[in-house]
Design a protein that fits this description.
The structure is a single chain. With 743 residues, the chain is an alpha+beta fold. It has four domains: 238 residues, no CATH class; 50 residues, Laminin (Ribbon), CATH 2.10.25; 105 residues, Phosphorylase Kinase, domain 1, CATH 3.30.200; 230 residues, Transferase(Phosphotransferase), domain 1, CATH 1.10.510. The strands form ten sheets. The protein has a seven-stranded mixed β-sheet, with no helix packed on it. A six-stranded mixed β-sheet has the order 28-32-33-31-30-29. A five-stranded mixed β-sheet has the order 1-11-17-14-15, with no helix packed on it. The N and C termini lie far apart (147 Å). The structure holds 2-acetamido-2-deoxy-beta-D-glucopyranose (12 copies). The site of one 2-acetamido-2-deoxy-beta-D-glucopyranose (NAG) has 2 residues, from loops.
C-alpha cells in the first residue's frame, strides 16, 4: 500500500522573525495589555519593545469590529504564565468524497512552530482522527525521525457512540516531546466512496484533548470542521530558550538576560525542550517576569483554616490559630480542645496547691517545734538534762507531747482522776501498759511554773519507796506536765475523813501509813545537804498505793536549797491547819516546819478529826490548839475518839500524843527531827503489833536502819508487802476507783 503525503499549499507558518529580536528587559508602559478580550502579560507583548523577545511578539489584528491576537499566523486564545503554555487555533486536515466529481478531495496540513520559544504540548494535546473508514498520519518534516498514525472504521452509524473515542468513528494517539513541526496526511487506501451516505468526510488534527468530546454528528455532518471554521484548539509550551540555557546558566549569565526579575520568584526548567520559565515562589502570585511582579497571596481569602480558627495572612504564608484552650490539629484540620494545655494547667494548679500546702505545713511545724523548744528551754529542760547526764541510771523519761496526748486519749474527761485548784490529773497508759498519773495545770503564773520546775527537779532525783516516783515529764508544752507512777488507792485524808471513815481501818494500818510517811519525809530531809523541805505536808498529800503503802506527794512547795534569803519571803504557802506558826512569823521554811505539819498529821490519825473545823465552836476550831489545851489540862480523852480509848494500849496512845505534842512545839528547835519522829513511830508500832507480826516488823525496821539510801529502798517493794502481810481488818477498800489528788 502506497503511503503518500498530500501536501496542499495551505501550510501555516508560525513565527518567522525570531532571529534578530533585541532583548528588552523593561516593558514600555504604553504597551497594550489586552487584545480581543485576551490578556497579554509580559513576556508577551503587542508591538515593538513590548515583548521579551520576538518569540513572544503578539500581533493584534483588527477584523471588522473585533480584534484578535495572533502569534505568527495562529490565533491566540489564552496565555498561561503559571504553566507556561498558550492556547492557539491550528487547522484541521480533511479527506472528503466529492459526490459531484466522484473523487476524494484532500486537505493535508503542516505547522512549523520554529525551534525557538514554542513546542507542541505532549501533555495536553492528542492527535485526533474522525471517520468510519480512515487512516491518518502525523509526522515530522518527511517522516524520517517520527511518524505515527490512527485508524478508524465503522460499517454503519449504529456502532458509533457519543463520548467514546476508541477506534470506532474516532481515534486518538499521543505525540512525543520536543515537537516544533508536524505534518498531517491521509492514507489513500482508506476512502469514504462507499459510505458517503452516512460519512462523507474524515478529519484529523493535533488538538487539545480536554476540548474534544466525540459526537456521532461529527461522522454524519461537517459539524466538527464548521465549529471553529476548520480550526481546533491546541496547546503550545513556551519557554525562554535563548541559547538553549538552563536555569543555572541563565542565573550565572552576567549580561543580565535572566528573565525571572521579580523577587520571590523561582526559575523552572522547561519540561518540553531546552530553556526555562519563571514562577512566583510559594505563597506569592503575579508576574515573575516583571520587577516586583510577584506579590503576596492573601491565603485567608480562601478560608484555609478550620471553622473556629482564625486566619492570619503573613508575607508568603498564613497562620491558623485557635482560640484559647484549643489546639490546631494539622491532621484533621480542626480546632480540637488542647488536652495538653488543659492537663498542663490542671497539673500545674495541683502542683501549686500541694506546694503551698506543704509549705504551709512545714512553716506550721517549724513554728510548733520552735515553741516546743522554747518551752523546753524555759522549763529547765536543759538543766534537767545536764543533771541527768551527771546522775546516770536515773529512771526518768522526758515524754513528748504526742506521747501524753496518746496516753490520755487527748486529755479525755473520762481519764481525769483528780481535780486540783490549778489543774487536772489524768490517768494515762504509756508504753508497756504502765499506768501513770499526769499532772497538768490549766492556768499557770510565773510562781506556779517555778513550782512545777521545783517539783520536777526534786522528784527526779529522789527515789524512795515512800515518795511518789516521778516517772518523767513533758517540757514541750507551755506548762510542763509531770508524769508520776500511778497510785491507786487515794489519800490518807480520804482514809481518815472519807465516807467510810477510819472505822473500818485498823489503827495499826493508819499507824503504819504514818510511819511510812515519816520515813519518806525523813529520807527527803536527809537526802541532800541542805535538806529538801516538803513545805506542804498534810494528809491529802500522802497517797496510798494498792497495798495501802504511803507515798508522799506534791512537791510543788518544796525547797531544794534554801540559801537564797529572797526565797523565804516569796514562798508563803502551805495549808491552813498544818502551817508552822514559826514559819508564819519568820517566813523561814525549815525542816522543822515539815515536822510541825507532820505533828498535825499524827493528831489527825489519833483523833480522826480534821485539823481545822471552821463550823465548830471558837475554841475547837484548830485541832492542834484544842489538842495542846487538852494535853496541858492532862485531859487527852477529850479529843480522842471513843473507839480508840478502849482498844489501843494506853502506852501507844500516850506515846503518839507525846510525839504530836513535841512536833507541835511553837519553837522549831525544840521539835524532834523527822528521823527521830520516824524512829519513835517505829518504836510505837512495835507496841501495837501482835507477837508474830512483831518479828516481821523488826526485820523491816532493821532494814530501814540500813539506810535511806535509794538502792536499798528501791528494791524493797516486794519485801515490803511481804513484811506487812494482810492483817485482819486491815484492808478495807473504800472507793472502788482510784484517786489521785493534786492539791
Ligand atoms: C524600541 O527600542 C529601541 C531601542 O531601545 C528604539 O530605538 C525604538 O524606537 C523603540 N520602538 C518603539 C516603538 O518604541
Ligand atoms: C511583531 O509582529 C508585528 C506584526 O506581526 C510586526 O510588525 C513586528 O515587527 C514584530 N516585532 C517584532 C519585534 O518581532
Ligand atoms: C483562558 O484560560 C482560563 C483558565 O485557564 C479560562 O478560564 C479562560 O476562559 C481561558 N480563556 C480563553 C479565551 O480560552
Ligand atoms: C467537487 O469537484 C468539482 C470539480 O472538481 C468542484 O468544482 C466542486 O466544488 C467540488 N465540490 C465540493 C463540494 O467540494
Ligand atoms: C476507493 O478505494 C477503493 C479501494 O479501496 C478503490 O477501488 C476506489 O477506486 C477508490 N475510490 C476513489 C474515488 O478513490
Ligand atoms: C520552520 O521554520 C524555521 C524558521 O523560519 C525554518 O528554519 C525551518 O526550516 C522551517 N521548517 C520546515 C520544515 O519548513
Ligand atoms: C527528508 O528526508 C531525506 C532522507 O529521507 C533527507 O535527505 C532530507 O533532507 C529530508 N528533508 C528535509 C527537509 O529535512
Ligand atoms: C448496520 O449494520 C448491521 C449489520 O452489520 C445491520 O444489521 C444494520 O441494519 C445496519 N444499520 C443501518 C442503519 O444500515
Ligand atoms: C450524540 O449526540 C448528538 C447531539 O450531541 C445527538 O444528536 C445524537 O443523536 C447522539 N447520538 C447517539 C448515538 O446518541
Ligand atoms: C472546512 O472549513 C473551512 C472554513 O470554513 C472551509 O474553507 C473548508 O472548505 C471546510 N472543509 C470541509 C471539508 O468542509
Ligand atoms: C549570556 O547570554 C548571551 C546572549 O544571550 C550569550 O551570548 C552568552 O554566551 C551568554 N553567556 C553565558 C556565560 O552563558
Ligand atoms: C533554530 O533557530 C535558530 C535561530 O533562532 C536557527 O539559527 C537554527 O538554524 C534553527 N534550527 C532549526 C533546526 O530550524
Amino acid at each position: 500500500m502506497e503511503v503518500r503525503f498530500l501536501q496542499f499549499g495551505l501550510g501555516l507558518l508560525l513565527l518567522l522573525a525570531a532571529r534578530h529580536a533585541p532583548v528588552t528587559a523593561v516593558r514600555s508602559p504604553q504597551c497594550q495589555s489586552q487584545c480581543g478580550g485576551v490578556d497579554i502579560p509580559y513576556p508577551f507583548g503587542i508591538g515593538d519593545n513590548c515583548s521579551l523577545s520576538s518569540g513572544f511578539n503578539v500581533s493584534c489584528k483588527v477584523q471588522g469590529r473585533t480584534s484578535k491576537p495572533f502569534i505568527g499566523k495562529a490565533e491566540l486564545l489564552n496565555i498561561s504564565l503559571i504553566s507556561a503554555t498558550v492556547r492557539v487555533l491550528l487547522p484541521i486536515a480533511t479527506h472528503c468524497y466529492n459526490t459531484s466529481s466522484g473523487r476524494m478531495d484532500f486537505s493535508g496540513k503542516w505547522v512549523n512552530a520554529s525551534n525557538a520559544t514554542y513546542r507542541f504540548s505532549d501533555v495536553y494535546n492528542k492527535f485526533t482522527v474522525i471517520g468510519c473508514n480512515t487512516l491518518a498520519y502525523i509526522s515530522d518534516m518527511n517522516g524520517t525521525s517520527y511518524q505515527s498514525g490512527c485508524v478508524s472504521t465503522c460499517s454503519n452509524l449504529s456502532y458509533v457512540t457519543n463520548g467514546s473515542c476508541s477506534g470506532i468513528g474516532c481515534c486518538q494517539t499521543e505525540i512525543p516531546k520536543g515537537m516544533d513541526y508536524y505534518r498531517v496526511g491521509f492514507d489513500r487506501g482508506f476512502n469514504t466512496s462507499k459510505i458517503w451516505t452516512f460519512n462523507r468526510c474524515s478529519y484529523a488534527a493535533l488538538m487539545e484533548a480536554a476540548a474534544f468530546n466525540f459526537s456521532t454528528a461529527y461522522i454524519s455532518t461537517t459539524k466538527f470542521n464548521d465549529t471553529r471554521n476548520g480550526m481546533a484548539p491546541s496547546v503550545l509550551d513556551w519557554a525562554i530558550r535563548n541559547g538553549s540555557m538552563s536555569c543555572e546558566m541563565a542565573k550565572q549569565n552576567k549580561t543580565g538576560t535572566y528573565a525571572c526579575l521579580s523577587r520571590n520568584s523561582a526559575c523552572v526548567e522547561s519540561t518540553n525542550g531546552p530553556g526555562y520559565a519563571c514562577n512566583c515562589s510559594q505563597g506569592y502570585e503575579g508576574n515573575p517576569y516583571l520587577a516586583d511582579g510577584c506579590h503576596d497571596v492573601n491565603e485567608c481569602n480562601n478560608s484555609p483554616c478550620p471553622s473556629g480558627g482564625v486566619c492570619t495572612n503573613t508575607v508568603g504564608h498564613y497562620q491558623c490559630s485557635c482560640r484559647a484552650g484549643r489546639k490546631l490539629s494539622k491532621l484533621k484540620n480542626a480546632c480540637d480542645p488542647d488536652t495538653g494545655l488543659i492537663i498542663g494547667v490542671t497539673i500545674g494548679f495541683f502542683v501549686l496547691m500541694v506546694f503551698c500546702f506543704s509549705g504551709y505545713m512545714i512553716l506550721q511545724k517549724r513554728k510548733l517545734t520552735k515553741v516546743k523548744k522554747e518551752h523546753f528551754r524555759q522549763h529547765g529542760g536543759m538543766i534537767l538534762f545536764e543533771r541527768m547526764k551527771l546522775e546516770k541510771g536515773l529512771a526518768f523519761k522526758v515524754f513528748t507531747e504526742a506521747e501524753l496526748i496518746h496516753a490520755t486519749n487527748n486529755y479525755d474527761n473520762s481519764t481525769i482522776i483528780g481535780k486540783g485548784g490549778h489543774g487536772m490529773v489524768y490517768k494515762g497508759i504509756v508504753k508497756d501498759n504502765v499506768p501513770v498519773a499526769i499532772k497538768r495545770c490549766v492556768m499557770i503564773d510565773e510562781r506556779q511554773k517555778k513550782e512545777f520546775g521545783q517539783e520536777m527537779l526534786i522528784l527526779s532525783q529522789v527515789n524512795h519507796k515512800n515518795i511518789v516516783k516521778l516517772v518523767g515529764c513533758c517540757l514541750e508544752v507551755e506548762i510542763p506536765m509531770l508524769v508520776y507512777e500511778f497510785i491507786s488507792n487515794g489519800t490518807l485524808f480520804e482514809l481518815i475523813h472519807g465516807k467510810n471513815k477510819a472505822l473500818q481501818i485498823s489503827f495499826n494500818t493508819l499507824l503504819r501509813i504514818v510511819h511510812e510517811a515519816a520515813e519518806g519525809l525523813s529520807f527527803l530531809h536527809s537526802y541532800a545537804s541542805p535538806p529538801i523541805i516538803h513545805g506542804d505536808v498534810k494528809t491529802a498529800n500522802i497517797l496510798l498505793d494498792g497495798n495501802y503503802a504511803a507515798k508522799v506527794s506534791d512537791f510543788g512547795a518544796s525547797v531544794l536549797a534554801p540559801s537564797d534569803e529572797d526565797q523565804y519571803v516569796t514562798m508563803v504557802q502551805g495549808t491552813c491547819g498544818y502551817l508552822d506558826p514559826e514559819y508564819m512569823q519568820t517566813c523561814q521554811l525549815t525542816d522543822k516546819s515539815d515536822v510541825y505539819s507532820f505533828g498535825v498529821i499524827v493528831l489527825e490519825v489519833l483523833t480522826g478529826q480534821v485539823p481545822l473545823k471552821l463550823d465548830g465552836p471558837e475554841t475547837q476550831k484548830s485541832l492542834s490548839s484544842s489538842f495542846l489545851v487538852a494535853m496541858k489540862e492532862n485531859n487527852l480523852d477529850a479529843v480522842l475518839p471513843s473507839h480508840l480509848k478502849g482498844q489501843e494500849s494506853a502506852e501507844l496512845i500516850r506515846g503518839l500524843a507525846e510525839l504530836a505534842k513535841q512536833c507541835l512545839d511553837m519553837c522549831g528547835t525544840n521539835r524532834p527531827s523527822m528521823k527521830e519522829v520516824a524512829d519513835e513511830l517505829g518504836r510505837l508500832r512495835k507496841l501495837s503489833l501482835h507477837p508474830w507480826a512483831q518479828l516481821e516488823a523488826e526485820r523491816e525496821s532493821s532494814q530501814s536502819l540500813l539506810g535511806g539510801t535509794p538502792p536499798a529502798n528501791f528494791e524493797t517493794i516486794e519485801d515490803y508487802t511481804s513484811g506487812y502481810p494482810t492483817q485482819e481488818g486491815e484492808i478495807l477498800p473504800m472507793n472502788p476507783g482510784s484517786q489521785y489528788y493534786a492539791r
